[in-house]
Amino acid sequence: MAKRDYYEVLGASKGATAEEIKKAYRRKAKELHPDRNKDNPGSEAAFKEVGEAYDVLKDADKKAAYDRYGHAAFEGGMGGGGGRPGGGHGDFASSFSDVFDDLFGDFMGGGRGGGGRQRAARGSDLRYNLRVTLEEAYNGLQKTINVPTTVSCDSCNGTGADGGVEPTTCPTCSGMGKVRAQQGFFTVERSCPTCSGLGQIIKNPCNSCHGQGRVEKERSLSVNIPAGVETGTRIRLANEGEAGMRGGPSGDLYIFIEVSKHALFEREDLNLFCRVPVSIATAALGGDIEVPTIDGGRSRVKIPAGSQSGRQMRLRSKGMPALRGAASGDMFIELAVETPVNLTSRQKEILREFDTLSEENNPESSSFFKSVKSFWDSMKS
Question: Domain holding 330: CATH number?
């Protein structure tokens, strides 16, 4: 019986790319797997046919020969494989193993082509939450923090072995760090259970670290917090995280900044806002007030006569510094006209007299009540 065209077997076009061929193979292999076709006695043969087709078309050289000569490329010695496509490697297990590596190689320690054995494990990254005041965020500071972490074991120099002796090759995986097991048509690859994927074992573990190559310890670190940081700013300290396993590289330490709320200032990006209460007399007559600034200084602000609550005045370059660059934000003074409380009889008398005399001095009130009167008149009509 004549062999079917390999492209037809996979359901791919002759101009298909390597990625398209791989996708077609995955689809067909899943469709024809014997475990899903137990009532179909021909599924196993079809399944192997798909594996044979993919074994040829996945290889650029074999594919080129097949595109030119067809099945004849692998007959009579042309392919160097004794009549089998791919030189004796056309079985399904080999083909599926390649796809398996493509899919899961990153989780197995680097796939088939990287020498197999995993390197010594890198230490974990650490996170440290640091709260600073708004003044500290404005000025920047040098701060010492205590970080609970793991450090390289001094007793074994990080090797995990007693006396610092070098680990030996794992006899189970021969140093590859992984083992393979045949399960029917599948080749399953797992991390070696003996060495946990490291490819090496320790015969005499260090008493201090119990073979880990690292011990728990609290470290004191001096951290430079630059001026201009804000809540959410992240500072990375390379190699200051947990020590790696058995001499592996250390992780990094990430410091996340949180700026505390301030009693006087509210921050918005680089700008600061300060709500300042003023008396009715000052708002009406105008005057000067003294306001604080984030650098600890004072600034005099002129209040124009007739100022209303909510009016803002800007003090340029009195805000927060930019984290990068020489720019600075502004400070905005927001007036809050304060209504007096607990008035004396004399104060009330003066205010009533003032109210009587100031009907023409409240343009906003006059405009509002005129609009109200017009509204009521329209409702009546």
Answer: 2.60.260.20
Are residue 251 and residue 121 in the same domain, yes or no? yes
Contact 55, 38 (CB under 8 A): no
Q: Which domain holds residue 357?
A: 345-380
Same structural domain, 277 and 367? no
pLDDT of residue 102: 46
How far is the CA of 299 from the CAs of 11, 137, 293, in angstroms?
Answer: 79, 21, 7
Shortest CA distance to 62 belongs to which of 315, 9, 70?
A: 70
Q: What does pTM read for this prediction?
A: 0.56
Q: Is 274 part of any known ligand binding site?
A: no
Helix-, strand-, coil-residue percentages of the chain, each rounded to 5? 30, 25, 40
Asked if 250 and 132 sit in the same domain, the reply is yes
Beta-bridge partner residues of 313: 333
The pLDDT of residue 173 is 84
Strands laid side by side in the 271-279 sheet: 265-268, 271-279, 331-338, 312-315
Residue 285 C-alpha from the chain's centroid: 56
Number of domains in the chain: 5
pLDDT for the residue 112: 40
Are 87 and 123 part of one and the same domain? no
Per-block mean pLDDT, blocks of 10 residues, the chain (381 long): 84 87 87 79 84 87 83 59 43 49 43 44 89 96 91 83 78 83 73 80 83 85 94 93 81 94 95 95 92 94 93 95 91 94 92 81 75 85 72
- For residues 67 and 172, what is the distance between their CA atoms, to the nearest angstrom? 43
